[in-house]
Amino acid sequence: MHRNLATVQRKLRLLIVEDEVAIRTGLVDVFVYHGYDVDAAVDGPSGLKMAQSGRYDLILLDVMLPGRNGYEICEAIRAGDREQPIIMLTAKSGDNDIIQGLALGADDYVTKPFSVAQLVLRVQAVLRRTRVSASSEATLHLADGIEIDTRNLCAQIGANEVRFTRREIEILQYLSEHAERPVPREELLHKVWGYAKHLDIETRTVDIHVAKLRRKLEADAKQPKHLITVRGGGYRLVRSD
Question: Where are the domains of the chain?
Answer without folding.
Answer: 5-131, 164-237
